[in-house]
């Protein structure tokens, strides 16, 4: 008997195991290094290399042969994986030298360096568990963080020394602080100079950040874990930058802004990007590494907020700056001072700069993410089919990943200079679902909407109960032209629901005005748009949707939206499952929350309007609250406080606490049974 979808989805980490990822192309384009597990159910990630001339793949590092203890991860590494939503084990991250001849990585806190030609991996002795190792550009040295100290080891002599050591237990050197990792997509805290004789290093001091305690009620003998969490309106970690020379020199790089967004160090400049706390001003500065003096290169401002885009700053061979900024209502690619993309093409990320060419992802239609290049003279489409694409580019060679509604999984292809395509196989499991997804527009605002019907349902044969399945929050999407986005939705549909997935205002891909419609109100536009989508789809499928039985489910912001729906619009929504919901925005982090709602001391009414506890007495529909008690992102206090308010108001509801579970819910049994329990609850709630 084949496995059920919930069990297979849990075992495969939602069908991500076995998919190639983490690509690095050698400068001459002859080799591609990447990560992949050996099967779709194997959680141990290996390091591989593809010869683009012979098309031969080679296993470089199999962690099982190195005998790591995968359960013995340093706390900093566990936190890093939680921030990056990393569900697998093994070699989940690596770094190479410029020539891509060596790779370094950490396994259970142990430092390894692998020779990519021979495949031999050497274990290096370190004074403590290793976090985020990175090779110098010439491959002679490896830097890493241990115990909050940034250290460098010479791979020839094995001399190991600290370049910076923490002055107190709240200080770290070389690590991205919580806000950078969780909200800015910056997972690193140091950068090698191109010559390999110095590093730009972040010093983060969490002393000002308030201490919260994450308890484990299922094990009362365990001491609650102390965590410094920068909740909205409270102090952030203090971040500083220093240029640390291998000769022992230390040069401060001062900046006045609250947030260190990112940095880059190439042959043209040492670049630092900072942002004010209100996120309305972003500054790109060029730094003199010898003195630490900064020169302002450009300043971007916005009355709502300035967007952070990954992959910039970068430079072409002639030194021209590559940047992304808002202009004429769109996210546009700039080369030098010139916008080279139209405002109708929404740039998502800069993926690579190869000499004089820029590879970037962008959307014309918000349900598509396509690849484009700017070759110094013109824009050229790289992907031409409908779908969601990403990629890398170096040495005239490209790596393209493709997802669509027409094919299962992720397809990866290496495109050589001569145009020949070389596939990199995926070992991912097949979900075994017959997808029946229609993507279109619905409602007054023409919302990007997916309608997912049971494979066995004949249109017009009878009305189905409806399940809204949104995320619904800003800067994230559910409705994309790829099968993987709708696997869980299709499984819910097979249980007898017509499932609707809709992206409302605030979601990316439709321009800056659309995204900024949620400014100062995370509740009203999100809820209005789900109702708008529901009514629009009902007009399109008048004989298939039963609007007297409408449920809604979601996780994180989607959980907030699900609870919001039954609290404020019980006339439309008849049951909800709210997983890890943000119920009080004062309890969520500074960077995300203040971007949309401002400072709570300055706009308390805005926070009240977007939070849920004041609505507790309105509950008249079945509500299931689900929360991991070990969640350090949306802490369990959100659910517990809402539950207390509901109890005080005499409103019946259900709470499912998940002992030892974080925001990711990676445990197989938990992930499997959560799906089954949700279906059972919704069927009973809707009758």
TrEMBL record:
| Species of origin | Nonomuraea terrae
Check the UniProt entry and state the signal peptide residues, or none: none
> Per its record, how is this protein called by name?
S9 family peptidase
Example GO BP: proteolysis
Please state every residue range assigned to the domain named Peptidase S9 prolyl oligopeptidase catalytic: 488-687
Please report the stretch or stretches of sequence annotated as the Dipeptidylpeptidase IV N-terminal domain: 107-372
Spans annotated as Disordered: 65-84
Q: What GO MF annotations does this protein's record show?
A: dipeptidyl-peptidase activity; serine-type peptidase activity
């Amino acid at each position: 008997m084949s496995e059920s979808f919930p069990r297979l989805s849990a075992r495969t980490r939602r069908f991500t195991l076995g998919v190639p990822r983490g690509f690095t192309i050698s400068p001459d384009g002859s080799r591609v290094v990447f990560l992949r597990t050996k099967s779709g159910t194997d959680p141990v990630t290996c390091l591989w290399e593809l010869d683009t001339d012979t098309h031969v793949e080679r296993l470089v590092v199999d962690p099982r042969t190195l005998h790591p203890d995968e359960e013995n991860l340093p706390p900093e590494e566990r936190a890093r994986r939680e921030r990056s939503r990393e569900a697998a084990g093994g070699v989940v991250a690596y770094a190479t030298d410029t020539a891509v001849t060596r790779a370094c990585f950490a396994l259970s806190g142990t430092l390894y360096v692998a020779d990519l030609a021979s495949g031999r991996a050497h274990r290096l002795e370190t004074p403590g568990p290793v976090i985020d190792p990175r090779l110098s550009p010439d491959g002679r040295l490896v830097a890493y963080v241990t115990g909050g100290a940034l250290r460098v080891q010479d791979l020839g002599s094995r001399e190991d020394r600290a370049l910076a050591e923490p002055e107190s237990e709240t200080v770290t050197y070389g690590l991205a602080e919580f806000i950078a990792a969780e909200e800015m997509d910056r997972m690193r805290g140091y950068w090698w100079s191109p010559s390999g004789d110095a590093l730009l290093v972040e010093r983060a001091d969490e002393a000002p950040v308030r201490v919260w305690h994450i308890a484990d009620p299922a094990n009362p003998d365990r001491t609650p874990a102390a965590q410094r969490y920068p909740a909205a309106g409270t102090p952030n970690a203090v971040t500083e930058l220093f240029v640390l020379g291998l000769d022992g020199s230390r040069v401060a790089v001062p900046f006045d802004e609250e947030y260190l967004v990112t940095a880059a160090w190439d042959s043209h400049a040492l670049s630092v990007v900072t942002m004010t706390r209100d996120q309305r001003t972003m500054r790109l500065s060029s730094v003199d590494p010898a003195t630490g003096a900064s020169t302002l290169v450009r300043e971007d401002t916005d009355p709502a907020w300035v967007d952070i885009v990954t992959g910039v700053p970068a430079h072409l061979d002639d030194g021209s700056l590559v940047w992304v900024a808002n202009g004429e209502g769109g996210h546009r690619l700039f080369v030098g001072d010139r916008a080279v993309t139209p405002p109708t093409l929404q740039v998502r990320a800069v993926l690579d700069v190869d000499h004089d060419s820029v590879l970037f992802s962008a959307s014309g239609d918000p349900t598509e993410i396509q690849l484009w290049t700017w070759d110094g003279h013109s824009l050229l489409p790289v992907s031409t089919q409908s779908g969601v694409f990403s990629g890398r580019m170096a040495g005239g060679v490209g790596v393209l990943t493709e997802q669509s509604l027409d094919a299962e999984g992720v397809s990866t292809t290496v495109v050589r200079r001569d145009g020949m395509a070389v596939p990199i196989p995926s070992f991912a499991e097949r979900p075994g679902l017959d997808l029946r997804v229609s993507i279109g527009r619905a409602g007054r605002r023409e919302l990007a909407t997916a309608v997912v019907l049971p494979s066995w349902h004949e249109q017009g044969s009878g009305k189905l109960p409806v399940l809204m399945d949104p995320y619904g929050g800003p800067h994230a999407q559910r409705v994309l032209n790829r099968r993987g986005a709708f696997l869980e939705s299709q499984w819910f549909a097979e249980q007898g629901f017509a499932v609707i997935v809709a992206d409302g205002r605030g979601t990316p891909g439709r321009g800056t005005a659309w995204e900024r419609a949620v400014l100062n109100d995370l509740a009203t536009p999100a809820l209005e748009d789900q109702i708008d989508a529901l009514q629009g789809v009902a007009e399109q499928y008048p004989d298939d949707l039963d609007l007297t039985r409408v449920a809604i489910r979601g996780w994180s912001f989607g959980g907030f939206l699900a609870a919001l729906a039954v609290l404020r619009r019980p006339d439309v929504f008849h049951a909800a499952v709210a997983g890890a919901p943000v119920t009080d925005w004062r309890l969520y982090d500074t960077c995300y929350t203040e971007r949309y709602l401002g400072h709570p001391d300055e706009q308390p009414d805005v926070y009240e309007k977007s939070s849920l506890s004041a609505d507790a007495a309105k509950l008249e529909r079945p509500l299931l609250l689900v929360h991991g008690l070990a969640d350090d992102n949306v802490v369990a206090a959100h659910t517990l406080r809402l539950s207390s308010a509901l109890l005080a108001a005499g409103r019946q509801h259900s709470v499912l606490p998940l002992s030892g579970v974080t925001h990711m819910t990676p445990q197989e049994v938990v992930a499997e049974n959560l799906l089954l329990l949700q279906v059972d609850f919704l069927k009973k709630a809707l009758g």
